[in-house]
What does this fold into?
Amino acid sequence: MPKAAPTASSPLSAANAAYEDSPQYAGGRFRNTHPRPANSPKPNTKTLLKFFFNKPPNSEPASPLPIQPLSRAELEVAPEHSLYRLGHSTMLMKLRGGWWMTDPVFAERASPFSFAGPKRFHAPPIALKDLPPLRGVILSHDHYDHLDHAAIRALIPRTGMFLCPLGVGDRLAAWGVSAEKIIQHDWWQASEVDGLRLTATPAQHFSGRGLRDGNRTLWSSWVIEDLQNTQALRMFFSGDGGYFDGFAEIGRRFGPFQLTLMETGAYDEHWPYVHMHPAQSLQAHKDLGGHWLLPIHNGTFNLAMHAWWDPFEQILNLGQQHGIAIATPMMGERLDLDAPHAGTPWWRACTDVAAHSTTPSAAGEATRLDSRPQR
Ligand SMILES: [Zn+2]
Ligand SMILES: [Zn+2]
It folds into this structure.
């Protein structure tokens, strides 16, 4: 019998009493600002059975995706304000001389089990062991596709601090991260580090890793600001979540943003409250006052019933329609945060998008998008 990864349901021990002060906390669990509307669908047994046993064939690529391998030597000479997408919602950024990483996931599967669950479409462009020391890790919530036990364990000796929403730090402590390295924030709380300001901001989502720990830890998005630079840099990292009025509020308080790292993937008509459809991702970006949109939460794991490439095609198409600059760097490709570029539709090398399209507009746009200008 294969052994399950030793991750499920760590007891939440530290400082629960302190969470009573949080407006997001009630009766031992965290909650969203707006409760799920009674008429909003949520997954039922039929949906879940379909998800596990009857996924459409194009929900995963037929062959491993192309990546740009990334070496330690390349990172050592990387200029300030470099950003690399390593997969899913895992981003590596050089800010004020230090390396920062969001939601580090290097596991083969986004699952509590080593033998079942969504499997990666590609190897990480750089192995965990080759990463440079990290100034900090920024975590959005405790779902398996964002919080990877083995990656956290490996990063402990090489990471200065772990910033996370309330309660996630309790998991980290249970996994061996020392208390002085853990910084837990409620929404709107910030840390200032090396001239950066990192603020946990609201999201409309949920949390949990086992059957009985639902919403015991908080979820968040993050605003990442480098304010001491001559040209202030403001970035938004969405984490996971449905579309809500929090994006406009974050935009009012912190916008405009040069770049949003925006959830675009794992959407479904059965769970609109907790994940956005691409048109909502684009609207959230507009609400925030975003310039460049880099779609994340796609291209690594199969977490929904849509075609694996559908998020890319839809958001490119929407970007064209609405005049929004979309950046789709290949996994491992460098993006200059001070001058982002569009990248290429690299995913088309692995699929005949036009032949399989579930979105008629995406197929129609394919030729034109191929020749889109570099912005
Ligand atoms: Zn999630
Ligand atoms: Zn997720």
Remarks:
- Residues 143, 145-146, 240, 297 surround zinc ion (ligand 2) (CB under 6 Å).
